[in-house]
Protein backbone atom coordinates (compact mmCIF):
# COMPACT_ATOMS: atom_id res chain seq x y z
CA UNK A 1 0.00 0.00 0.00
CA UNK A 2 1.34 3.40 -0.92
CA UNK A 3 0.51 6.72 0.66
CA UNK A 4 -0.10 9.86 -1.31
CA UNK A 5 2.34 12.66 -0.64
CA UNK A 6 0.56 15.89 0.23
CA UNK A 7 2.13 19.01 -1.29
CA UNK A 8 3.57 21.34 1.33
CA UNK A 9 1.64 24.18 -0.25
CA UNK A 10 -1.53 22.56 1.12
CA UNK A 11 -0.44 23.42 4.67
CA UNK A 12 -0.67 26.90 6.20
CA UNK A 13 2.75 28.38 6.94
CA UNK A 14 3.66 30.58 9.89
CA UNK A 15 6.03 33.51 9.71
CA UNK A 16 9.36 32.83 11.42
CA UNK A 17 11.22 35.54 13.32
CA UNK A 18 14.39 35.86 15.37
CA UNK A 19 14.23 37.93 18.57
CA UNK A 20 17.30 38.56 20.72
CA UNK A 21 17.45 39.45 24.42
CA UNK A 22 20.72 41.32 25.00
CA UNK A 23 21.46 41.49 28.73
CA UNK A 24 24.05 43.44 30.69
CA UNK A 25 24.73 44.85 34.15
CA UNK A 26 24.80 48.64 34.38
CA UNK A 27 24.73 50.87 37.47
CA UNK A 28 24.41 47.82 39.70
CA UNK A 29 21.30 46.46 37.98
CA UNK A 30 20.48 43.85 35.35
CA UNK A 31 19.38 45.50 32.08
CA UNK A 32 18.01 44.41 28.72
CA UNK A 33 18.32 46.24 25.39
CA UNK A 34 14.95 47.35 24.05
CA UNK A 35 13.99 49.19 20.89
CA UNK A 36 10.86 51.20 20.06
CA UNK A 37 8.48 51.13 17.12
CA UNK A 38 6.95 54.16 15.40
CA UNK A 39 4.44 54.52 18.25
CA UNK A 40 7.18 54.43 20.89
CA UNK A 41 6.27 50.95 22.14
CA UNK A 42 9.07 48.83 23.60
CA UNK A 43 10.12 45.51 22.08
CA UNK A 44 13.14 43.28 21.75
CA UNK A 45 15.24 43.69 18.60
CA UNK A 46 14.17 41.16 16.01
CA UNK A 47 13.73 40.39 12.34
CA UNK A 48 11.66 38.06 10.18
CA UNK A 49 13.55 35.27 8.44
CA UNK A 50 13.63 36.22 4.77
CA UNK A 51 13.12 33.75 1.94
CA UNK A 52 16.03 31.34 1.50
CA UNK A 53 17.76 32.68 4.63
CA UNK A 54 18.70 30.58 7.66
CA UNK A 55 17.99 31.33 11.30
CA UNK A 56 21.74 31.70 11.88
CA UNK A 57 22.00 34.27 9.09
CA UNK A 58 19.04 36.14 10.53
CA UNK A 59 20.70 36.26 13.96
CA UNK A 60 23.71 37.93 12.33
CA UNK A 61 21.40 40.37 10.53
CA UNK A 62 19.66 41.35 13.78
CA UNK A 63 23.02 41.97 15.44
CA UNK A 64 24.45 43.98 12.57
CA UNK A 65 21.43 45.73 11.05
CA UNK A 66 19.19 46.21 14.08
CA UNK A 67 21.68 46.57 16.95
CA UNK A 68 24.86 47.84 15.31
CA UNK A 69 26.91 45.02 16.89
CA UNK A 70 29.58 42.92 15.22
CA UNK A 71 28.24 39.42 14.49
CA UNK A 72 31.84 38.20 14.38
CA UNK A 73 32.38 39.04 18.06
CA UNK A 74 28.90 38.60 19.58
CA UNK A 75 27.57 35.05 19.70
CA UNK A 76 24.00 34.74 21.04
CA UNK A 77 22.86 31.30 22.13
CA UNK A 78 19.55 29.68 21.27
CA UNK A 79 17.12 30.36 24.11
CA UNK A 80 13.80 28.75 23.13
CA UNK A 81 11.14 28.62 20.44
CA UNK A 82 8.01 30.64 21.22
CA UNK A 83 5.13 29.32 19.14
CA UNK A 84 1.82 30.41 20.65
CA UNK A 85 -0.36 31.01 17.56
CA UNK A 86 -1.70 34.22 19.14
CA UNK A 87 1.63 35.65 20.31
CA UNK A 88 1.73 38.27 17.53
CA UNK A 89 -1.50 40.11 16.61
CA UNK A 90 -0.09 40.84 13.14
CA UNK A 91 -0.26 37.17 12.18
CA UNK A 92 0.83 33.63 12.99
CA UNK A 93 4.51 33.98 13.89
CA UNK A 94 7.00 31.64 15.51
CA UNK A 95 9.94 33.26 17.29
CA UNK A 96 13.29 31.49 17.47
CA UNK A 97 14.51 33.47 20.47
CA UNK A 98 18.17 33.95 21.32
CA UNK A 99 19.98 35.62 24.22
CA UNK A 100 23.43 36.98 24.98
CA UNK A 101 25.03 38.80 27.92
CA UNK A 102 27.62 41.49 27.18
CA UNK A 103 29.76 43.98 29.03
CA UNK A 104 28.01 47.33 29.39
CA UNK A 105 31.02 48.96 27.71
CA UNK A 106 30.37 46.88 24.59
CA UNK A 107 26.88 48.40 24.34
CA UNK A 108 27.89 52.07 24.44
CA UNK A 109 26.96 52.52 20.76
CA UNK A 110 24.17 49.95 20.55
CA UNK A 111 20.98 50.91 18.69
CA UNK A 112 18.40 50.91 21.45
CA UNK A 113 18.22 51.69 25.14
CA UNK A 114 19.08 49.87 28.34
CA UNK A 115 16.05 49.06 30.48
CA UNK A 116 16.49 47.69 34.03
CA UNK A 117 14.67 44.42 34.69
CA UNK A 118 13.26 42.99 37.92
CA UNK A 119 14.23 39.62 39.46
CA UNK A 120 11.22 38.15 37.62
CA UNK A 121 12.41 39.48 34.26
CA UNK A 122 9.89 42.31 33.88
CA UNK A 123 10.88 45.87 33.01
CA UNK A 124 11.50 47.64 36.31
CA UNK A 125 9.63 50.70 35.01
CA UNK A 126 6.44 48.66 34.74
CA UNK A 127 6.26 49.38 31.00
CA UNK A 128 4.80 46.60 28.88
CA UNK A 129 6.72 45.17 25.94
CA UNK A 130 5.10 44.06 22.70
CA UNK A 131 3.96 40.55 21.81
CA UNK A 132 5.27 37.91 24.25
CA UNK A 133 8.65 39.60 24.59
CA UNK A 134 8.18 39.78 28.37
CA UNK A 135 8.24 35.96 28.37
CA UNK A 136 11.42 35.95 26.29
CA UNK A 137 13.10 38.43 28.65
CA UNK A 138 12.02 36.36 31.66
CA UNK A 139 13.39 33.17 30.08
CA UNK A 140 16.69 34.88 29.23
CA UNK A 141 17.15 36.28 32.75
CA UNK A 142 16.24 32.90 34.28
CA UNK A 143 18.94 31.17 32.23
CA UNK A 144 21.47 33.86 33.11
CA UNK A 145 20.70 33.51 36.82
CA UNK A 146 21.07 29.73 36.62
CA UNK A 147 24.58 30.18 35.27
CA UNK A 148 25.51 32.76 37.91
CA UNK A 149 24.25 30.50 40.71
CA UNK A 150 26.84 27.92 39.61
CA UNK A 151 29.98 29.76 38.51
CA UNK A 152 31.90 33.00 39.03
CA UNK A 153 31.00 35.39 36.21
CA UNK A 154 30.51 32.69 33.54
CA UNK A 155 29.53 35.27 30.89
CA UNK A 156 32.57 37.50 31.56
CA UNK A 157 30.64 40.64 32.50
CA UNK A 158 33.58 41.90 34.58
CA UNK A 159 36.91 42.82 33.06
CA UNK A 160 39.69 41.21 35.09
CA UNK A 161 41.33 41.85 37.40
CA UNK A 162 38.59 42.53 39.94
CA UNK A 163 38.06 42.36 43.67
CA UNK A 164 35.90 39.80 45.45
CA UNK A 165 33.51 42.61 46.37
CA UNK A 166 33.12 43.62 42.72
CA UNK A 167 32.48 40.00 41.76
CA UNK A 168 29.91 39.55 44.53
CA UNK A 169 28.11 42.77 43.57
CA UNK A 170 27.89 41.54 39.97
CA UNK A 171 26.30 38.29 41.13
CA UNK A 172 23.91 40.18 43.40
CA UNK A 173 22.79 42.39 40.51
CA UNK A 174 22.09 39.36 38.32
CA UNK A 175 20.54 37.13 40.99
CA UNK A 176 18.42 39.96 42.37
CA UNK A 177 19.31 39.33 46.01
CA UNK A 178 22.06 40.01 48.52
CA UNK A 179 24.69 37.34 49.15
CA UNK A 180 26.59 36.51 52.33
CA UNK A 181 30.04 38.02 51.84
CA UNK A 182 32.14 35.44 53.67
CA UNK A 183 30.31 32.45 52.20
CA UNK A 184 30.56 33.90 48.70
CA UNK A 185 34.28 34.52 49.12
CA UNK A 186 34.87 30.94 50.31
CA UNK A 187 33.01 29.56 47.27
CA UNK A 188 34.62 31.89 44.74
CA UNK A 189 38.27 32.00 45.79
CA UNK A 190 39.14 28.38 44.84
CA UNK A 191 37.95 29.18 41.31
CA UNK A 192 40.00 32.38 41.00
CA UNK A 193 43.67 33.21 40.54
CA UNK A 194 45.21 35.97 42.69
CA UNK A 195 46.88 38.53 40.44
CA UNK A 196 50.46 39.74 40.93
CA UNK A 197 52.04 43.10 40.23
CA UNK A 198 55.24 43.67 38.23
CA UNK A 199 57.37 42.85 41.29
CA UNK A 200 55.56 39.57 41.92
CA UNK A 201 53.64 40.87 44.93
CA UNK A 202 49.87 40.45 45.37
CA UNK A 203 48.11 43.04 43.20
CA UNK A 204 45.65 45.20 45.12
CA UNK A 205 43.23 48.06 44.58
CA UNK A 206 42.36 50.76 47.09
CA UNK A 207 38.70 51.75 47.10
CA UNK A 208 38.11 53.81 50.21
CA UNK A 209 39.19 51.20 52.75
CA UNK A 210 42.12 48.88 53.06
CA UNK A 211 43.64 47.52 49.82
CA UNK A 212 41.64 44.67 48.27
CA UNK A 213 43.26 41.73 46.48
CA UNK A 214 42.69 41.44 42.73
CA UNK A 215 41.63 38.21 41.01
CA UNK A 216 40.83 36.65 37.65
CA UNK A 217 39.12 33.38 36.80
CA UNK A 218 41.32 30.30 36.99
CA UNK A 219 39.13 27.22 36.68
CA UNK A 220 37.81 24.90 33.96
CA UNK A 221 34.47 25.98 32.41
CA UNK A 222 32.80 23.07 34.22
CA UNK A 223 33.96 24.11 37.71
CA UNK A 224 31.08 25.28 39.94
CA UNK A 225 30.45 26.77 43.37
CA UNK A 226 29.09 23.39 44.48
CA UNK A 227 25.69 24.51 45.76
CA UNK A 228 23.32 27.48 45.77
CA UNK A 229 24.88 30.75 46.88
CA UNK A 230 23.55 31.69 50.34
CA UNK A 231 21.79 34.95 51.12
CA UNK A 232 21.73 36.59 54.56
CA UNK A 233 18.64 36.05 56.70
CA UNK A 234 16.19 38.97 56.57
CA UNK A 235 17.01 39.95 60.16
CA UNK A 236 20.75 40.24 59.35
CA UNK A 237 20.52 42.38 56.20
Protein architecture, described:
This protein has two domains: 14-149, Nucleoside Triphosphate Pyrophosphohydrolase (Alpha-Beta Complex); 164-236, no CATH class. The chain is an alpha+beta fold and 237 residues long. 22% of the residues lie in helices and 23% in strands. The strands form three sheets. Strands 1, 2, 3, 4, 5, 6 and 7 form a seven-stranded mixed β-sheet that branches. The longest helix has 18 residues, at 133-150.
- CATH names the topology of the largest domain as Nucleoside Triphosphate Pyrophosphohydrolase
- Determine the mean pLDDT: 88
Task: Just give the CATH class of the largest domain.
Answer: Alpha Beta
**Estimated helix fraction:** 10-25%
Strand content: 15-25%
* Structural category: alpha+beta
CATH superfamily grouping of the largest domain: Nucleoside Triphosphate Pyrophosphohydrolase
The gyration radius over C-alpha positions equals 21 Å
Please tally the helical runs, counting DSSP H or I stretches of 4 or more residues. 4
**Approximate shape:** elongated
Strand tally, please?
A: 11
Any idea what the CATH architecture of the largest domain is?
Answer: Alpha-Beta Complex
Main sheet characteristics: 7 strands, mixed
Number of domains: 2
**Poorly predicted tracts of residues:** none
Euclidean distance between termini CA atoms: 73 Å
Amino acid sequence: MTTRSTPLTDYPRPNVAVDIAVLTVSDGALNVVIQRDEQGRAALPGRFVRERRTVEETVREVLELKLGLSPDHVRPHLLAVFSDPDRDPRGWTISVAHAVALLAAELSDVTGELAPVTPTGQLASGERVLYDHAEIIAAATDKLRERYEDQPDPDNLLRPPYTLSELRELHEAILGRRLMRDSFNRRAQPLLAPQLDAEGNPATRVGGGRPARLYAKDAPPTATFGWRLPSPRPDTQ
